[in-house]
Amino acid sequence: MPNAYQQMTTSELDATIAQLEEQVAKIRALGLKLDMARGKPSSEQTDLSRPMLDLLTSESELVDEGASADNYGFPDGLPSARRLAAELLGVDAQNVIVAGSSSLNLMHDVVVNAYTKGIGGNAPWCAQGEVKFLCPSPGYDRHFAITERYGIRNVPIAIGDDGPDMDEVERLVNGDPTVKGMWCVPKYANPTGVTYSDEVVRRIAALKPAAADFRVFWDNAYAVHDLYDEGDELLNVFEALAEAGTKNLVYEFASTAKVTFPSSGMAFVTASPADIAEIRAAFSIERVSPEKLSQLAHVRFLRDVDGIRAHMARHAEILRPRFELVQLKLEEGLGGLDVARWTHPRGGYFVSFDGPAGSAKAIVALMAELGVTLTGAGATWPYGRDPLDTNIRIAPTFPTLANLGAALDIFVVAVKLVSARLALAER
Ligand SMILES: Cc1ncc(COP(=O)(O)O)c(C=O)c1O
Questions:
Q1: pTM score of the predicted model
Q2: pLDDT tens digits along 330-345
Q3: Are 34 and 70 members of one domain?
Q4: Where in the sequence is the domain holding 15, given as residue range(s)?
Q5: Which of these, 100, 203, 252, 328, has the minimum number of CB atoms within 10 Å of its CB?
Q6: Which residues form ligand 1's pocket by a CB distance below 6 Å?
Q7: In whole angstroms, what is the distance from residue 393 CA to residue 408 CA?
Q8: Is there a domain that residue 51 lies in?
């Protein structure tokens, strides 16, 4: 169906564009500097975790269930930290390694290990000619950057309301031995906010890869990041694997980056016993043991899954008004024009916005001119190539509510002007 601008007569459209250009000139004159680019928590949110910093002092007991946090040893992480991570993911603590402060770092290292050393006795990916990763898109640019860096071909896969297009995933994974991996953010995906349906999780768990060294990189970054008491429910992928009788298919990652402190959280990985043994062996070459003082502070602060949920409810109180403001401003500004659609996530860190074909780069550029930084258009697609140039990732968490509101008002004007200009250019 034609959008509101496409339905106008040319003279109506000219007048509308002139009016929008006037609004843009006024905004430009304000010389604003606003940032809606990256998914970072606001300082109100990181403040919630400051009490954690008081839990370790020079007087503190630094032993955790017999493990010294102030020395080498316990290469899989402190026992209580592994248990906390296991509880959060619903897996066996024996199969969990807690290491470092960044889950992305762990994903990178696992990819590099497969690339240089191989998985399960298979040749390293680097020695197998062209290898590919499936990339549900729009997706997380930093995932795509890891595989791109090692020359692995990133293949975009459509993502719908219930997860990736599984017909396509099954066709490629089960039929093509050069497909070695798949990036997944199964809950409140970055940037769509979609949570994979039970059926999608089951179909992923039942994959019969043509390559023995194919693995799913299950990045459960937003496992506990609900905005509402009733959060989306994600089926436990390891339970689905057990049901399907599938053995070594999934590496699951997560961290407390957006629970406590980004870049100073606690990151973890879990996999089947055989896969985690291989990861453990690779990590043992990288360092003697992980940093454990932060793990100790985390377990003393968060305690258990109920502690995490209570803490996340406080994050949600801060975030809910921001996400609701996005919906309100977009609906008020663009509802009824049929120029755009956007997602309505119930958790996570992003709203995914799609304007008319050919609009995203122009909108982001106009926003930059007006003093509002957005994630680069195309960033949500492999190689920065959004085939229809429609997708923009909105990250509402970091700005204050007032700045977010101001940025969204400008965004609405930018979307309207770019859409109206496109409608005129089509004639
Ligand atoms: C899907 C996803 N995974 C991982 C990360 C980064 O996590 P970490 O700080 O644990 O490396 C982010 C951060 O935005 C993310 O959105």
A1: 0.97
A2: 999 999 999 999 999 9
A3: no
A4: 10-45+309-425
A5: 328
A6: 39, 102-104, 140, 185, 190, 219, 221, 255, 257, 262, 267
A7: 13
A8: no
